[in-house]
Amino acid sequence: MTHPALKMYDYHIWADGVIIDRLKELPQDIYHKEIQTGFSSVSKVLSHIYLTDYAWFDIISGKSMNEAIATTNQLREQIETKSIEEMKKIFLDLSERYKELLNSQENIEKVIVVDNPYAGLLETSVSETVLHVVTHGSYHRGNIATMLRQMGHTSVMQDYGLYLFMPQTS
Questions:
Q1: Which of 29, 79, 102, 104 could crosslink 47 through cysteines, CB 3.0-4.6 Å?
Q2: What is the Cα–Cα distance from 156 to 87, expressed in whole angstroms?
Q3: Is 73:54 a contact under the CB 8 Å cutoff?
Q4: Where is the signal peptide, in residue numbers (predicted)?
């Protein structure tokens, strides 16, 4: 049986794909359009989701949080300027790397220690970290949905309940 955290990660991949596909359907200028909200554009929110996923991938892989943050800070400007088509590709590439990493774990409940420079030490597990990645992505995909509505466009359903009704490919 698939571990619940791995099933949730599969949902995360699906939901990212759903919102990215919706963004590809909209007028091109929507993606980078500056608006007055928590994030200044949809592209910045999607980049934030990607960079956070990337950082936690590095942490699960054994890097320190400081190393992971430094890497994502170096990537930020490059990622924020990508087109939605390019974002779809890098999200898919990262999800494949995640799947390989997670499937190679002997024990997904293995304890990892995260030294957060802002919050201190945290003992957590790989599975809890995956759940954090998923809930973080869900929260920010909600931001994107709100931003689209503010710009006069509809979003798309992407909740876990809908995912459960979808045919599963993994």
A1: 79
A2: 18
A3: no
A4: none
